[in-house]
Amino acid sequence: MVKIAPSILSADFAAMGDAVREMERAGADLIHVDVMDGHFVPNLTFGPPMVSAIRPHTRLPLDVHLMVEDPGWLVPLFIRAGADYVTVHEEGTPHLHRVVTAIREGGAKAGVALNPATPLAMVEDILEELDMVLLMSVNPGFGGQSFIPKALERVERLKAMIETRGLSTLIEVDGGVTAGNADQLKRAGADILVAGSAVFGAPDRPKAIRELRG
Ligand SMILES: O=C(CO)[C@@H](O)[C@H](O)COP(=O)(O)O
Ligand SMILES: [Co+2]
């Protein structure tokens, strides 16, 4: 069954402990933490202290999405803070193999994220080392943007690549995910759907999670 990862980028920043507790009760599978550095993307969010602050409030895995230029130095800090998944962007990571190895050696699961215009070929030679590939379905930097439909076909092609090689790499889709496109994404092969505004903007959040899961 597809997993749902609400993004706390759309939560109330003054009440993050409440937000993650609420998401666990509402049936979420992971908590997605969007880290933005003001360089790789034109927005600034939070660092390792946010992860250590929310860690005691949930047993759900913390799925840290680093939208950061050259993020290698941050990896041990986020793992120490309690991250379960650490995902770095291919476009911002000059020594991708080194960073992915450091994530795994640090005891976390390693993900690589691709922007909407980055060819899937950029993860082809490192796929065996990855627990997850995050396909962006918006340009990173902000919540609440519209889904880029081309992402569906990219999920299908990546799924085929993973299956052909007999791997169990997960596909996470991030950006503009709604109840209206979740079914198609699942059929295309998505394993985890990130949803910010579709969950936190809904009047009934548990229902929104159920509808995304289908
Ligand atoms: O990484 C990002 C944005 O850069 C995402 O995780 C967004 O936070 C998802 O928000 P919605 O598009 O679901 O509102
Ligand atoms: Co994200």
Automatic annotation (TrEMBL):
Q: Which reaction does it catalyse?
A: D-ribulose 5-phosphate = D-xylulose 5-phosphate
Alphabetized GO MF terms: D-ribulose-phosphate 3-epimerase activity; metal ion binding
**UniProt pathway annotation:** Carbohydrate degradation
**In the record's cofactor note, how is the cofactor described as bound?**
Binds 1 divalent metal cation per subunit.
Q: Name one GO biological process term.
A: pentose-phosphate shunt
TM spans (from-to): none
InterPro entries recorded: Aldolase_TIM, Ribul_P_3_epim, Ribul_P_3_epim-like, RibuloseP-bd_barrel
Q: Source organism's superkingdom?
A: Bacteria
Q: Which PROSITE patterns did the record assign?
A: RIBUL_P_3_EPIMER_1, RIBUL_P_3_EPIMER_2
- Entry's EC annotation: 5.1.3.1
Which cofactor does the UniProt annotation name? Mn(2+); Zn(2+); a divalent metal cation; Fe(2+)
Q: Which residues form the active site?
A: 34, 174
Q: Which GO terms describe its cellular component?
A: cytoplasm
Q: Where does a divalent metal cation bind?
A: 32, 34, 65, 174
Residues that hold substrate according to the record: 7, 65, 141-144, 174-176, 196-197
Keywords assigned by UniProt, alphabetized: Carbohydrate metabolism, Cobalt, Isomerase, Manganese, Metal-binding, Zinc
The family note in this entry says:
Belongs to the ribulose-phosphate 3-epimerase family.
Q: What does this protein do?
A: Catalyzes the reversible epimerization of D-ribulose 5-phosphate to D-xylulose 5-phosphate.
Cite the NCBIfam families for this sequence: PRK05581.1-4, rpe
This one is known as: Ribulose-phosphate 3-epimerase
